[in-house]
Write a structure and sequence with these properties.
Blueprint: H1 2-20, E1 27-33, H2 34-42, H3 45-48, E2 53-60, H4 62-65, H5 68-78, E3 83-87, H6 102-107, E4 112-114, H7 118-127, E5 132-139, H8 144-157, E6 162-168, H9 172-178, E7 184-187, H10 189-195, H11 198-205, E8 210-212, H12 217-231, E9 238-240, H13 252-261, E10 262-269, E11 273-282, H14 291-294, H15 310-314, H16 338-341, H17 346-354
């Protein structure tokens, strides 16, 4: 083990030295995955990049890109009698359009519970047959299969007091929206483990470049090095630098489950607006488990709260510290925007590591 660690450290130093020698044309590389953003800050990778290479945060944090309307819909449901809202932890602190959050609603008496999986929410429904249990299904291809499994189990088991408020998203069409503002993407390892490489091969044929990256320092440096080298050829590329996890075909069982339970739809993204075909909704067979339909939830306007500039951060247009609220009105203890709430958010990463490990110039 120690020998492996030594080899990784030597490789990391070698790659870092190679990157620092870069003198080619300027490159903008987008970290699609929020975990990549955090790891690049944490390992100090941003601080070693030459002036010509710029890492920018992207929309790969599911909590961050969930629009205010979803939060407001959940708040609307939380005021109903005998309704239990179940959610992942980060989401309950995300403000809605008027600054209210599920955390505040819970403090005021609403029954809002943090769960670790959709199946936990399904169990709560089974244990509370006289209450309606709504799971806030937020996430990309990585977590969507679990939401689909919960719905399938509820349908097969006759659990009629369970539903999901669905904000599941797929990444592919977001790349088209963002491609014009970056030279290449650091594709997300977790999502890619489900989708496989086919998505990126198609993007390559349409002139969009990127590399699938792991999460260790050597894996991230390798991916950045490959992007640098391939970009000099001025031809599109799609490279898998995470082969120990990501395969060509992906997780066929997970993809099959998603396709069985859900179908594509247009979807709102914080920062990107309406992205055609980027969302998922329950198919007609399972529409009874759609909380939006079951409770006839009114349409909620999509607005950013209190002058927050999270949307611009998610598009890579600005760095977190360029938002006037950053570090003042907006901190991890008192977040104004979703990017400061989530553990994968760019603002949270910059707040924790950015003063020491940034290449913002």
């Amino acid at each position: 083990m120690l020998k492996d660690h030594d080899n990784i450290e030597k490789m990391s130093v070698y790659l870092a030295e190679g990157i620092q020698k870069y003198t080619g044309r300027p490159l903008r590389i987008m970290e699609v995955c929020g975990t990549h953003t955090h790891e690049n800050y944490r390992h100090g990778i941003r601080s070693i990049l030459p002036l010509g290479i710029k890492l920018v945060a992207g929309p790969g944090c599911p909590v961050c890109v969930t629009p205010s309307g979803l939060v407001d819909s959940a708040l609307y449901l939380s005021q109903r009698k005998n309704v239990i809202i179940c959610s992942f932890g980060d989401l309950i602190r995300v403000p809605g359009a008027k600054g209210a959050s599920l955390a505040r609603a819970r403090a005021e008496g609403a029954d809002i519970r943090v769960v670790y999986s959709p199946l936990d929410a399904l169990n709560i429904a089974i244990e509370n047959p006289n209450s309606e249990v709504v799971f806030l299904a937020v996430g990309f291809e990585t977590t969507t299969p679990a939401s689909c499994l919960a719905v399938k189990k509820a349908a097969d088991g006759g659990v009629r007091n369970f539903s999901i408020l669905c904000a599941c998203k797929t990444m592919t069409n977001a790349y088209y929206v963002l491609a014009g503002s970056v030279d290449a993407f650091l594709y997300p390892g977790h999502v890619s483990a489900v989708t496989g490489m086919g998505v990126y091969k198609k993007l390559e044929t349409e002139g969009i470049s990127g590399v699938v990256a792991g999460f260790g320092v050597a894996e991230l440096l390798t991916a950045i090095t490959v992007i640098i080298e391939k970009s000099q050829l001025n031809t599109p590329f799609a490279i898998n630098c995470y082969p120990r996890v990501v395969t060509e075909q992906g997780n066929l069982a997970a993809v099959s489950l998603i396709n069985e339970i859900m179908e594509p739809c247009d979807n709102q993204w914080r920062g990107l607006g309406l992205v055609k075909g980027s969302g998922l909704r329950l198919r007609e067979k399972y529409r009874d488990f759609d909380a939006e339909v079951r409770f006839n939830i009114p349409e909620m306007p999509e607005t950013e709260s209190n002058g927050c500039r999270c949307g611009e951060v998610l598009r890579g247009d600005i760095e977190p510290e360029q938002c006037p609220h950053y570090g003042k009105k907006c901190t991890p203890e008192n977040p104004v925007g979703a990017c400061m709430v989530s553990n994968e958010g760019a603002c949270a990463a910059f707040y924790r590591y950015g003063d020491f490990h940034t290449n913002s110039r």
